[in-house]
Amino acid sequence: MKSIFNSLGSNYSLKFVSTSLWSIFFSRKSDVKKLERHLAQTYGGEVLSLYKGRDAIEACCRVLLKPGSEIITQAFSCYAVEEGMLRAGMKAVYADISRDSTNLTVESIAETYKKYPQAKAVLIQHSLGIPADSVAIRKWCNTHGLLMIEDIAQGIGGIDSTGKMLGELADAVIFSFGKDKIIDAISGGAVVFKVMDDERNERLIDVKKMVGKLPFSIVYEDLLYPDLTSFIRKTHHFGFGKVVFVLAKKLGLLGSPIKSKTDTMTWMHQAYAKLAVLQFKGLEQQIEHRKKIAQIYFEQLSQSSLKQGGLQLLFTKEELERSSNLRFSVRCTDDTQVKKLVAALKKNRIYVSDRWYRWSVDCGSYQCKTMYQNKSCPHAELLATQVLNLPTHREITPAIAKKICTILLENV
Ligand SMILES: Cc1ncc(COP(=O)(O)O)c(C=O)c1O
Questions:
Q1: 179 CB under 6 A from ligand 1?
Q2: Is it the case that residue 259 has pLDDT exceeding 90?
């Protein structure tokens, strides 16, 4: 069996890999327009497309909020989300996730709001694809006069509890088309503004003036990624890929996705837009596949022997059916059990050590200074030591999913 990874471009199709490197020559400005039209038609609003999801968060904050505003967002997240807010001069204040899920709730938002009654917005994300309760959060935001920003980087294709697609209830929708997201165009981000007025329109004009041009060197380097990772994955099991992997890391070609190559808002290059449009075409099929694999994990891992061994699932069957199932999260007893299971899978050339998330606000392998206050969100801190994410991407067949479950069963 070939090596299996959680990430490393594992969800790219052959067509994507063969298109990506050349898309710098064969893409047009009209590809950006095509992507923006698609987002505007699907989500209903004014679209701004940028180089990164965090650029989209920055632009969103600058247009919708005044500098210095507090935004409630969830712990058990990555630093990139906070980075976007900070760049716009906002303050991120953290709400805890619930005891048995990967998402914040109305109760934890209300708790945080008591401490930060000046907060002006709530930014929700649907961690690992599991839908947060956007219907209840929308009602709460309406009652308290806060904006609801919905970041669907991990949740594109998911559905809320009333059957509407995620993003539909939001005042603004954020997208990241970065590596290992549902729509993975190597990089890219967008914001759909759904509640504009004259003042915000003026601020949008000012924001557009601030956006810089992306250097070509970054585009070339990014577009190498699908070919490079495809080669690594295909040759990893007989050793060659391992060497290339180490070399690519040393050369900085496989840096932490949490660290952006830019630190100000930058326009999306047309090549990413072309790739994102290609990815949107396969969205339905992708969601179907991920759901099928998640259902297998769910059935196999709901067994009582696994519960006795300490593994718990973090969502219900009904939530799974509405999820994008970007990854399948399992709660272990502690960090030791996570490491034991990761090692057992590794012996079978299944590499899942890339975990979302290892800290309440995860900075990956680079140092960052988050506004998260230690011990303020105990559920997020605990889950970060216990979570194991299983892959659901296109390389996972039902047989591989069952094999992963068997290995877990033998090692809990
Ligand atoms: C929910 C969410 N939003 C936004 C981002 C930022 O994405 P980007 O890397 O495109 O800036 C991430 C990145 O991991 C994310 O997980």
A1: no
A2: no
**Residue nearest (by alpha carbon) to ligand 1 atom 15:** 153
What confidence category does residue 258 fall into, taking pLDDT thresholds of 50, 70 and 90? confident
Q: What is the DSSP letter of 67?
A: T
In contact, 407 and 348? CB cutoff 8 Å: yes
User: Please, what sign has the CA dihedral across residues 397, 182, 220, 353?
Assistant: negative
Show the tokens assigned to 202.
């003026």
- Domains along the chain? 26-210 (3.40.640.10), 283-411 (3.90.1150.10)
Contact 12, 286 (CB under 8 A): no
C-alpha distances out from residue 94 to 33, 87, 332, 382, Å:
35, 17, 24, 15
Rounded to the nearest angstrom, the distance between the alpha carbon of 52 and the centre of ligand 1 is 8
pLDDT, averaged across the chain: 96
- Beta carbon of 80 within 6 Å of any ligand 1 atom: yes
DSSP codes of every residue in 109-137: HHHHHHH-TT--EEEEE-GGGPPP-HHHH
Distance of CA 67 to the CA centre of its chain: 26
Does the pLDDT at position 62 exceed 80? yes
pLDDT in tens, 237-253: 989 999 999 999 998 88
pTM for the predicted model, two decimal places? 0.97
**Residue 93's beta-bridge partner residues?**
72
- Residue 313 contacts by C-beta under 8 Å, 6 or more apart in sequence? 298, 301, 302, 329, 330, 331
